């Protein structure tokens, strides 16, 4: 096979279906068939129930725990899980993330001990030649494994799997096996980092704990020491945090299956290579059988004893060449299609082992040349997939969930939210969320993954380089087949020690040479270094014009992988995450929910002052919530719109990507998120969704240019109609601009800078609609802007007349769930600003979450109407037989509005609308 420059080209990938569970099963969006059924020695399952645990006191031996002997003091355990999640489930502690300060609620001593886990499980009676395996997908931090009184071995580091053969032990069992695991504590820990609202900074003023020594441990969840987006987690997320499974095989085990594809430049053909890593109990002749895209294959091979490998290519098997292949595309550019490969190894008509693999075919180029400020030509990070330039619009994940409570349904919902927000990438910060379910969801939803590894500049490097590299190696082998993985990256914001840099480069060159390996998120020092990207914020609220200044095509570098802002949730969630005594009085409970951020804006108190300066005095918590939604929307929308408006032909440094810090919250929070910890999408989410539409019309907040952006493969031609309105909602002026935007580019079609100054009010509403040549609407956008002739913030919004709206909601139910259709019309003369809809359970009043809204936080001029559709899955439809819709917004005239339900209750959200108390109470 012809070798390509690994820093420029990538094709192919696969996902092992079912996390190692054998055999074929259905998966939406895939194609193919399993081999015909034959007698099989392969079976298996997850050991997910019946676990118990206890703190290790040093007096109980693994040989006793891994036997039928009665052991006192063990309590029920959740596996996968952590000691703290088990303690919460057992009622020992309340959920510390809601209504509590974590370090005041749970003792930090949980980190200071090892823990025993124990379970009994049924095992099959082995037939001659059959082998038995135990697999651990993740133990934090050190694991020692015992089975039926015998020590099987150890595993080191949170991100390394362990596979143990236990054939001899199980062969002697009577149908039940006793498993015991000693989970070792961290080698290095700090005391907790405590929140302080008055300090204005993160816990103790630094990330990673008081000294950052936790990072010396090597691969672990080091952010649990305390970060500016995460409190100190008392057990540091120790535990068996990933599934434990058992499986049987015949004499020959398929230890690993790697699928790679080489896609031709014209995208017309793809050559598939399949490498099988085998583990055989003895030398034998065997047959490899499989199927791909409805075509079967077989190959007779000689398998030596021990470890060996077999590679099958299109030169060997004609069915491994695909003509006109269906491609895996990032979100918004096409279908993320996955093929299915079924493969087995057998002899004597009996299957030894089998796997079903889903993989995607795509071709990636990583760089484009640009002349840097030094005058040298640099290969800058700029992604092209299947010959289509991709403007990266991504989100950073710090940790999927603070306490590692992340069942597959929740994780898929989180990734789906990114898909529906029109994002195309997630950066897995420091690899803290590396699981099979995460990558499989990204495969399914077309989300590229920037995969970090485990080094950060917030503390010393890992002390055990060998352990660190062993975890990196296993992650590459385990996940390299996922089409979603874009690149590997050594760590966060600075280079790891040179041995780790050298080790990572060598591992990628050996194990996954078609992908890029970056040194760190701040820069690359590889043999063919990639330039043109950086971290560095800003991480706090800035006016939209600031983001357009930073991304106007004149600033280096063109790719920005960390930039964020405050992101305040809805009133309902604010009241859910804080104790009632703190609702109106910001304090240390607010600080434990990250309100100080990284100290930008002067911490939480500074952000509150800024909110009041921009939108007027904050009167109570509902008023803070509604004003914060406008603060969220205008800043976070600009984070994405500014690069969109300055991609490709903007120069000399056109934007090639932006990754917001952050999109997914690990805990209930005030900052760095686009939805809440309970998966409610607040205004930040819709700011992202609206900014990242593949065809868009954008108002440059710095120059007031009107820009048409086109991410797609077809040119966009038509006209843009721009209408300006005064604070009273009356139309002031209207302009029309011809639009002709080429593929994957943007074009400035006109300017409204002079028009804005002619508006009589200090605040101007701007409505922009892009229509095609037939007059059909393609996309619309909406802004509130300061009149540049008399800029004075937006406190005047409280003086605008209240809007009258008509809201009609109906529910349709089917076998796949329910859809709530909400027709919203502005029936008055004033502007209907940030009209917010919530779906709720009429019986309980609780919000139904997660809920997929087609749109929200609506901005409608007089007479304008839209229909919002809300999708609920079948389980949600079953749990919530009576649904309702609640409405709030900036200012709504309830008496002039009309609400009507057709199978759904429709009400005003009076608590959210109660923003004008007789006496202000906020902060008093």
Automatic annotation (TrEMBL):
Domain called Glycoside hydrolase family 2 catalytic: residue spans: 383-516
Origin superkingdom: Bacteria
Beta-mannosidase-like galactose-binding domain residues: 51-242
Domain Exo-beta-D-glucosaminidase Ig-fold: start-end pairs: 783-890
The keyword RNA-binding is assigned to this record: no
Pfam families named in the record: Glyco_hydro_2 (PF00703), Glyco_hydro_2_C (PF02836), Glyco_hydro_2_N2 (PF22666), Ig_GlcNase (PF18368)
Residue stretches making up the Glycoside hydrolase family 2 immunoglobulin-like beta-sandwich domain: 252-362
MF term (GO), any: hydrolase activity
UniProt key word DNA-binding: no
Keywords: Glycosidase, Hydrolase, Signal
Signal peptide location: 1-33
Sequence similarity: Belongs to the glycosyl hydrolase 2 family.
Name used for this protein in its record: Glycoside hydrolase family 2 TIM barrel-domain containing protein
């Amino acid at each position: 096979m012809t070798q390509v420059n690994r820093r420029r080209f990538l094709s192919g990938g696969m996902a092992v279906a079912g996390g190692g569970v054998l055999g074929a099963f259905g998966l939406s969006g895939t194609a193919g068939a399993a081999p015909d059924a034959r007698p099989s020695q392969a079976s298996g399952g997850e050991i997910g129930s019946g676990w118990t645990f206890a703190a290790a006191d040093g007096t109980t031996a693994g040989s006793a725990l891994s036997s039928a002997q009665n052991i006192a003091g063990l309590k029920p355990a959740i596996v996968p899980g952590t000691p703290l999640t088990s303690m919460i489930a057992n009622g020992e502690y309340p959920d510390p993330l809601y209504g509590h300060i974590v370090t005041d609620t749970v003792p930090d001593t949980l980190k200071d001990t090892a823990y025993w886990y124990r379970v009994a499980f049924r095992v099959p009676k082995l037939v001659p030649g059959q082998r038995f395996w135990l697999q651990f997908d993740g133990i934090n931090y050190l694991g020692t494994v015992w089975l039926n009184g015998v020590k099987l071995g150890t595993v080191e580091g949170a991100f390394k799997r362990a596979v143990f053969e236990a054939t001899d032990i199980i062969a002697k069992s009577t149908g039940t096996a006793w498993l015991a695991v000693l989970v070792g504590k961290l080698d290095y820990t700090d005391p907790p980092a405590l929140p302080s609202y008055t300090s204005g900074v993160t816990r103790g003023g630094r990330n990673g704990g008081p000294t950052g020594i936790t990072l010396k441990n090597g691969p672990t969840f080091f952010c649990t020491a305390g970060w500016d987006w995460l409190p100190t987690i008392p057990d540091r997320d120790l535990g068996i945090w990933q599934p434990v499974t058992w499986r049987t095989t015949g004499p020959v085990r398929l230890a690993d299956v790697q699928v790679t594809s080489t896609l031709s430049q014209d995208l017309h053909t793809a050559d598939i290579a399949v490498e099988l890593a085998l583990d055989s109990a003895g030398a034998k002749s065997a047959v490899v059988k499989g199927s791909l895209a409805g075509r079967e294959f077989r190959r007779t091979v000689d398998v030596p004893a021990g470890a060996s490998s077999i590679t099958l290519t299109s030169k060997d098997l004609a069915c491994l060449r695909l003509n006109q292949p269906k491609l895996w595309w990032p979100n918004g550019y096409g279908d993320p299609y996955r093929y299915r490969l079924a493969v087995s190894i057998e002899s004597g008509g009996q299957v030894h082992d089998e796997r079903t693999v889903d993989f995607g075919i795509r071709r990636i180029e990583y760089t484009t040349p640009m002349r840097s400020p030094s005058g040298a030509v640099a290969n800058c990070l700029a992604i092209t997939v299947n010959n289509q330039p991709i403007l990266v619009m991504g989100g950073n994940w710090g940790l999927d969930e603070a306490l590692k409570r992340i069942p597959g349904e929740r994780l898929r919902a989180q990734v789906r939210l990114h898909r529906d927000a029109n994002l195309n990438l997630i950066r897995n910060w420091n690899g803290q969320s590396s699981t099979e379910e995460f990558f499989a969801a990204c495969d399914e939803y077309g989300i590229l993954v920037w995969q970090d590894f485990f080094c950060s500049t917030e503390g010393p490097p890992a002390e055990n380089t060998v352990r660190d590299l062993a975890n990196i190696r296993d992650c590459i082998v385990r996940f390299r087949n996922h089409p979603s993985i874009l690149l590997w990256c050594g760590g966060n914001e600075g280079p790891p020690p040179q041995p780790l840099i050298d080790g990572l480069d060598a591992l990628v060159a050996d194990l996954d040479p078609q992908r890029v390996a970056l040194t760190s998120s701040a820069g690359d020092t590889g043999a063919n270094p990639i330039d043109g990207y950086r971290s560095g914020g800003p991480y706090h609220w800035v006016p939209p014009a600031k983001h357009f200044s930073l991304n106007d095509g004149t600033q280096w570098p063109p790719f920005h992988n960390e930039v964020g802002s405050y992101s305040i949730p809805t009133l309902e969630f604010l009241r859910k995450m804080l104790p009632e005594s703190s609702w109106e009085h910001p304090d240390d409970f607010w600080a434990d929910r990250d309100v100080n951020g990284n100290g930008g804006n002067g911490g939480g108190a500074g952000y509150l002052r800024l909110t009041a300066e921009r939108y007027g005095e904050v009167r109570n918590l509902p008023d803070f919530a509604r004003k914060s939604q406008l603060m969220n929307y205008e800043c976070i929308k600009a984070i994405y719109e500014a690069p969109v408006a300055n991609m490709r032909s903007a120069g000399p440094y056109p934007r090639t990507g932006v990754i917001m810090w952050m999109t997914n919250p690990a805990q209930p929070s005030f900052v760095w998120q686009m939805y809440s910890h309970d998966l409610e999408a607040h205004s930040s989410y819709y700011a992202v969704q609206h900014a990242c539409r593949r065809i868009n019309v954008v108002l440059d907040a710095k120059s007031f240019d009107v820009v048409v952006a086109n991410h797609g493969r077809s040119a966009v031609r038509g006209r843009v109609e721009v209408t300006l309105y005064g604070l009273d909602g009356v139309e002031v002026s209207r302009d029309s601009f011809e639009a002709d935007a080429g593929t994957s580019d943007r074009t400035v079609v006109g300017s409204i800078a002079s028009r804005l100054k002619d508006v009589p009010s200090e605040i101007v509403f701007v409505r922009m609609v892009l229509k095609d040549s037939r007059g059909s609407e393609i996309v619309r956008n909406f802004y509130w802007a300061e009149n540049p002739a008399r800029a004075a913030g937006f406190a005047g919004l409280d003086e605008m007349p209240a809007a009258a709206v008509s809201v009609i909601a109906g529910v349709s139910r089917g076998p796949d769930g329910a859809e709530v259709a909400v027709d919203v019309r502005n029936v008055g003369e004033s502007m209907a600003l940030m009209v917010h809809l919530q779906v709720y359970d009429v019986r309980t009043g609780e919000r139904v979450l997660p809920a997929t809204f087609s749109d929200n936080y609506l901005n409608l001029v007089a007479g304008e109407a839209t229909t919002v559709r809300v999708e609920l899955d079948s389980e949600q439809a079953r749990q919530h037989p009576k649904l309702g819709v609640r409405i709030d917004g900036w200012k709504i005239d309830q008496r002039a509005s009309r609400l009507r339900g057709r199978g759904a209750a429709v009400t005003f959200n009076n608590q959210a609308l109660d923003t004008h108390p007789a006496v202000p109470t906020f902060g008093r």
